[in-house]
Predict the structure.
Amino acid sequence: MEKVKRYIFMHMSSCEMCGESCEEHKTLGIRLNKSQGKSPKNKTGIAVGVKKCTRCNLIYASPQPIPNDLQDHYGTPPEDYWKPEYFKWNKNYFRIQTQTAQELLNFKKGMTALDIGAGLGKAMLTLENEGFDTLGLEPSKPFYSRAIEQMGISEKKLSFGAVEDLDYDSESFDFITFGAVVEHLYNPKECIEKAMKWLKPNGIIHIEVPSSNWLISAIINKYYRLIGTNYVTNLSPMHAPFHLYEFDLKSFEYLGNEIGFNIAKHHFSVCEIFFLPKFLHPLLNWYMKRTNRGMQLTVYLKKNG
């Protein structure tokens, strides 16, 4: 039997990234706590609203559903997510991100790094292999355990806990990576600001998040309108992968002005399309590359010196 999840629902008063009042924001529709498929109106479940900031284009759940226990969301064994091959590390994993950070940092061997949401610890292994002295933190107990037991990560290097609850000395790290983490956080601004305090001046934070301007979401949302519903495909606040936010480049520009960083580099990734007829994929991929309407936004944030 599936474990019962209990939530409290928190209403937001202002945008997490730019601070604009939520009263000004556009309501996009509603999102079920399960896969919606082609006909969501024929399904039953709990739905929350989905809104979009009119200033920085942040998309978010409204109200935010907060689980009674974080492990209800992230305590799933990694074997349920990944095939056996995923438990093998190779030196090319996370290497592009690592080398980009090295270029932006004018890298010297022994610079320090922190992996927030380390998962199985594979990015930590790559960072170490490329010359960083690396620590990590992981909030999922099963992932934390597998990182130590199966991937050989040292307990001295990896902390168990959430970024909201752990702490490090100010200006401890040259490079911090969130990977695919920030979209899961209830207070992304607070967490990024906290990480900035741990970062040395001119240090780099790497973040990968879902883009709020993804073409495929817009197409699916249009389809939902055409069949007479107000559902949207954005986010997944109450079912895996539990995404709470989608971000625009403007989201980080506004936040940077407030907490002291600039965007040193960014790019949009098309990623794999799991919907729509396959014969359309080449054309859609070409268009998304041309217009920066891919699924994922990657930013490298440089702390002001």
About this structure: Helices lie at 71-74, 95-105, 122-129, 141-149, 188-198, 215-226, 249-259, 281-291. The chain has two domains: 7-72+212-246, 77-209+261-303.
